[in-house]
Every structure is written in C-alpha cells, then in structure tokens.
Amino acid sequence: MQVVSAQQMREIEKEAIEAYGIPSLLLMENAALAVVREIQQTLVKMNSKGSCKVIVLVGKGNNGGDGLAVARHLLISGMDVTVLSFAKTEEFRGDAALNCRLYQKAGGRFFLIEGEKQLRSTRLALNQADVIVDAIYGTGLRGALPSLVEEYVEEVNQTQAWVIAVDIPSGIEADTGKVYRSAIRAQTTVTFGLPKLGHFLGKGPEYVGRLIVDPISIPDKFLEQEEVATFVLTEDAVQAFLPVRTLQGHKGTHGKGVLVAGSPGMTGAAILAGRSALRCGIGLLQIVTPQAAAFQIDMGLTEATIWPVEGQNTLDHRAWPIITEKCQTAQALAIGPGLGQNQDFIPVLEDVLRTLELPVILDADALNLIAQEPGILGWRQRRGPLLMTPHPGEMARLCGCSVQEIEDNRLEITLNKAVEWGAILVLKGAITVIASPDGRAFLNPTGNPGLGTGGTGDVLTGSILAWLAQGVPPLEAACLGVYLHGKAADELAQDVGWSGFTATEVADQLAKTRRSLELTEKG
Q1: Using only C-alpha atoms, what is the Rg of the chain?
Q2: What is the layout of strands, in order, in the sheet containing 210-214?
Q3: 133: part of which helix (H) or strand (E)?
Q4: d(CA 32, CA 355)
C-alpha cells in the first residue's frame, strides 16, 4: 500500500473531485462514516451497554468538519454527544461550516473553548467520557500545538476513555511524525484515502495506535499514483514473495548460503544468524569463521557446515580463499554477525564488493569496518546486488553524522544513501525502512520493543540470507525478512508481552510465522 505526504493526499483528493466529480462534502461524509463504523464496532467488542458518552474535540479546519459530521451521526444513533470546539461557529468554512450547522440543528451540544475557565468546567466531562474523538488538527499542522490546545491534549491523555483520532492524532506532523511538545495518544486512528508518512515516521507510531485506512470512495485509479514511491508492507504483498516448494525439491534446490561471522566471545551472533537461516528454509548453510570460534559454533549449530580459518581470533586476509571457494556454488553471502573489527579484514571486504557477483549482505561489524573506509562501497556499483542492514548507530557511523540526525530523518537519509551507494538499505528501528537504489522505500509495520534485545539483528540477517539463497529477488528478500522478523516478535508478544522473549525464540518462531502466512494465502 502506498504511503503519501499531506500534499500528495490533497492532490489525489483534488484530482478525484475535479476529474471524477466526487463532491468534497461526500468525501467528508464518508470520512465521518468510517470513523463512526469503527466506534460502533469497537463498542460492540467492548460489550458497552447503555448510553455511550462521547466527547468530540474539533478545530476550525476540514478535520474539525469531519469531527462535526462524526458527532452528528453518533448523536442520531442515540449516543450522548458533546462537541468541544476550539473555533467559533462563524470561523468554520465550506463543508465544515455546513456540518457545524447540521450538528446543531440536530440538537447537538456545542461548547466553545476559549480559555482555562472552560477546561475547569469540562474536565469532569472529559473524565466521564467513554469515547473521545480527536478532530482538532489534521494533516495540515506544522510545529507545536497552541498552548490552550496542549492543555486539553494533556487532559485527554490522562483519561481512561478510548481515544480515536480522525486522520492523524493532533500534534503530529503528517510528513515527518514529529511531535514538538505534546500530541493526542490515540488507541485507534482512522485515516482516509492512503496512510500518511507521519503515521510511521518519527514519534508517529507511539501516538497513532491501531491504524485503519478507509478509501472514503476515492476510486483506486486515483489512489494508485505512479509518482508515489513509498509503501507500507502488507501481509498480502509479503505473501507473494514467499518461495514455493515442490515435491521434487531437495537441499540442492533450496539454496546455498555462505555466512562469514563469529569470533571468540561472539559465537552467539553466528549461531543466531545461522539458526534463523535454517528456520527460514535454506537448503545448505556454510559458515566461515575463525578457528578459535569454530568449535563453539559447530556445537551450537550442528546442521551447518563450518569452515575454520587459521590465524587470529578475528578474520583477516586468510579468509578470502575460503570465501571465494564457497561462494562459487552459493546463491548468497552474508558478512558481519559477531565478526569483530579487525582492520586486516577490510581488504577482504573490498575484494568481496569488487569481484563477487552473487547478492551480498553486510551487517554489524562488516558495516563498522566499511565505515572506516566508506569509499570501497563504490567498488560494488553494477557488480552485483548489495544489501546493508544497519541499526541507527551503524548508519550514523557510515554517514558521518549523529544518531539523532539519523532518527530525525530516517526515510530521507535511507533513500538518499541507497541511491548513492547503489545498495538496498535496511535501516532497523521501531519502523524499519527498506530503501532501494531505484528510489522506492518500504515501511514495515510489524515488530515491537521486544526486538530490542541482543541478537535479534543477527536473526534478521540470517533470514534475509535464506530468502536470497532460495531465489527471492534482493528487494523482496529484504522486505520478506523484515516483515516476518517483526511478525514473529508480534506473535511471541501475544504470550509474554513486549519483554521476556529472546533472539533464539524469534529465530525459532520464523518457521511458524511463515507457515501462518502460507495458510492465510491458501485460505
């Protein structure tokens, strides 16, 4: 599914209105009905009984107009509705003004918020509400909320009510996900047409809650814009990437991968990456590692073939002949988990990038070594597929900037560097960004804070290696690996919450997660 900026969504709506003849008032009405449906369905799930108390917070823009239409429909359905408005009735324009009149003619309660006096008198109503609808600001907001609105936002965030945001929680910038001081923390956000960048970037995911996307009757031909190059991964899309096995398949046809990883004290990284690759169905896994780490890795991963390199505790130039030999019959190569940062290995990385044509994944210490000699990335141009899987710290070292700069500009920097380096970049984080050299980017919605534990990055590397070895194209392999990795963590979190599961459990869950996707597809 495409993800758009606020301006792109406005242009899509304008085109639909002008070219297709859809009245703007109908779009507003459909937006309101989408919110109303979600409220009604959720209340049924909550087994809510009796008259439901609803507070609708509105501003003077179109988002406020949506909120007033929501209030009217809820009022007509028999709910106890009160609108708290940060705009006078005469400040509403166009469709919003009409919805204000319709709501008031239906007998709806409308209170104007002008200062702290109203906050004191409405605090009780907010705390008694079962549902609070946030329709103060939409996608046009830039910068911090006004101080009066902030006071109400803080009050809403402290209530026990179920909070549902219209299009985007007030206080979040639609294009960046930035929150300057405060924003509505919604349990559910209903957005219209297409999801917005701010739902996934910056602080957005912390405030959006469960995201519902409703097309509000805009035809698909207007929503599918060629110039929109950012997408959110969906289960349907990812299912199409899964390789299909036949009865005639065997270990030779299920792909061979080479993993260059491990060193004394960090053998676990190699074991986790290998375990993940095996759980994702790789046919043959060969691990190149220092001799001092080989025994432990062999004991921890009996299904893989271990190729020890004599010499130091970390790999150096002596690893190159073994790597080239094993890659001759392999479909993919991954370098980095637990590798250590021996500068003598940098020439090997240069040789890999310059001479090997099979897909190469660089992770962990391989990236840290590259950061010392970033110019060698230029050797890879047009040689073969390159995938890089940095976390924000590694990305900051590669880019020569601060981690905060990376986090503040995740999408922009990842896209720019993917194009510059000619690599598929996987910037890990709360919403992992996968960027392609052709300018496309994919945002991953799966995963949770439970992945913030040692070893889960190694698991991701092994998963992507397995998909590449099984013939999945590089960009799709990265998307598939990232999505399944996060979904496996989500499934584990259903049992133990956002803490308590390990990287090993994530690796072991991958096979079950893949199977659940296969069964869903067949169903």
Answers
A1: 26
A2: 109-112, 80-85, 53-58, 131-135, 162-166, 188-192, 210-214
A3: strand 131-135
A4: 58
pLDDT in tens, 324-340: 999 999 999 999 999 99
**pLDDT score of 523:** 53
Quote the CA–CA distance of 161 and 361 in Å, as a whole number: 47
Residue of 446, 467, 475, 443 lying closest to 202 (CA atoms): 443
At residue 74, what are phi and psi to the nearest 5 degrees?
-65, -40
Instruction: Give residue limits of the domains in the chain.
Output: 6-226, 237-522
Give mean pLDDT in consecutive 10-residue pieces for the chain, a chain of 523 residues: 92 87 91 96 77 94 97 95 95 96 96 84 89 96 93 95 97 95 97 96 95 89 80 94 89 94 97 98 97 96 96 94 97 97 96 96 97 91 92 97 95 96 96 96 96 96 98 98 98 92 97 91 58
Interval 294-350: pLDDT, tens = 999 999 999 999 999 998 899 999 999 999 999 999 999 999 999 999 999 999 999
3-state secondary structure of 2: strand
Please answer whether residues 215 and 193 qualify as being in contact, where contact means their C-beta atoms are separated by less than 8 angstroms.
Answer: yes
DSSP 442: E
Q: Is 111 in contact with 81 (CB distance < 8 Å)?
A: no
CATH number of 237-522: 3.40.1190.20
Pairwise CA distance, residues 455 & 504, whole Å: 8
Cα gap 259→267, rounded to integer Å: 12
Q: For the residues of 371-431, what is the DSSP string, one character each?
A: HHSGGGGGGGTTTS-EEE---HHHHHHHHTS-HHHHHHTHHHHHHHHHHHHTSEEEE-SSS
The upper half-sphere exposure of residue 58, i.e. CA atoms within 13 Å in the direction of its Cβ, equals: 36
Q: Which residues pair with 247 in a beta bridge?
A: none
Q: Tell me how far CA of residue 376 lies from CA of 333, 382, 411, in angstroms.
A: 18, 13, 24
The correct CATH number of 6-226 out of 3.30.420.40, 3.40.50.10260, 3.40.50.300, 1.20.1250.20 is 3.40.50.10260
